[in-house]
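Standup, Tuesday
Yesterday: got the pipeline producing structure tokens again.
Today: sanity-check two examples.
Blockers: none.

Example 1:
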Amino acid sequence: MNEKFIPKPWARNPHIQTILGSIKIRSQGQHIITDSAVGTIIDGGNGVRLLGYHSSHPANHGAGLVTLIHGWEGSSDSTYILSTSKHLYDKGYDIFRLNLRDHGNSHYLNDGLFHGALIEETFHAVRNISHLSNGKPYYVIGFSLGGNFALRVALKHSLSRIPNLKHVICISPALDPYKATLSIDESFPIYRYYFLNKWKNSLRKKQALFPDKYNFADILKAKTCMGLTGFLQLPGIL
């Protein structure tokens, strides 16, 4: 079935779609997906630990397990993750909302910093999560940078099979992180402010947790995402 998505005229502007995707009202209200979620530490290999939230559907009728991966500076509690999780849970799926390293409330789990090349630990975690499906179909959905990770998970799956993996779905994947970062800096200033502010707050959390390892005093003076990226590429930072 090939259904083409055609948004309403008032929602066709890409900036409006971006805002609507994250507006908090879409995920407000009680729902069993958050009320019954079990916080779970997942082994990412080589001592890496990732945090996620597992919601098992009580019907247990075999729809399957879905792992959702958020975008850059998002989390397992991002609006688009919660709204997608609620929809799929109501359709009978078990849900696992995975946080990438240093996202959500997971900064304390690893002393190393997050960066976009951490596919090995993400793949290892996604593979370990698959065992929670108990033989049912397994799916992975990634958004934005999480979509980039999901694509690489699918590629690695061709070499190292993930049990019961049926489909990998990517929503607006950031295919070229370099160009995506430039776009953030060069588009409307609100995007640069949003991501730069969240990134700096993440680094402040990391520094507070590991003060003997990190001092970001100079790095936090960066005015653009590309500028901050350049600082973090200096020897001894990552």
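Example 2:
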Amino acid sequence: MERTQAPPVQKLRIRFAKRGRLRFASHRDFQRAFERALRRAGVPVAYSQGFTPHPKVSYAGAAPMGAASEAEYLEIAVTEECDPPAVSAALDAALPAGLDIVDVVVADHGSLADRLQASEWSIELPDAPFEALAAAVKAFLAEPVVEVQRMTKNGIRTLDARSAVVRMAVDPAGPTIRLVVRHQSPTVRPDDVLTGLRRLSGLRDTAHVATRLAQGPLDETAGTVGDPFNP
């Protein structure tokens, strides 16, 4: 017999981080961990109707596996009005270290996904000389199109890595590349940008760590990424 679920009365938007070794967790691994954390924390999450109800959780703009992030987002519907700081503390305690709740707010009108227009990334390349990185970035930005190939489940796909890059520069303190990437289809990832940099400049394939620093609305003029929680 089909069971009637309590209706949602509130939506909460959650910003979380993937840090350390947890950056290698897949999106599906995180979904399982988060749904377990909801139960442990006693969050009154709403469920869908039907014979196989599932929690009403909407994930948006997930970072690729292997990338760290300080700005991952999701939205949940709850059957009781909740205090966002209390939900934040309870979920953070229920999640493993490295999957960390950064902020929880009550959702306003509009779509969260529509506000995630771009990402700011940091790519650390500890073994790359600053001069080589600077030359690679200059060569990349000078090109109108930088085609790269990526292996997908449907085979090799060619995409233009240059069209997505709004701003890119080298931080000599790193050496680290800082870049703002526009969200588009197909998605351009930090690894795609690195592939383009290497192809144009002969930059060596060295170890790197990509970290998403921000994700939100894009200011095209300034080349900056805003906070999607701001009205």
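Quick observation on example 2: The chain has a mean pLDDT of 93. The chain has two domains: 10-114, 117-225.
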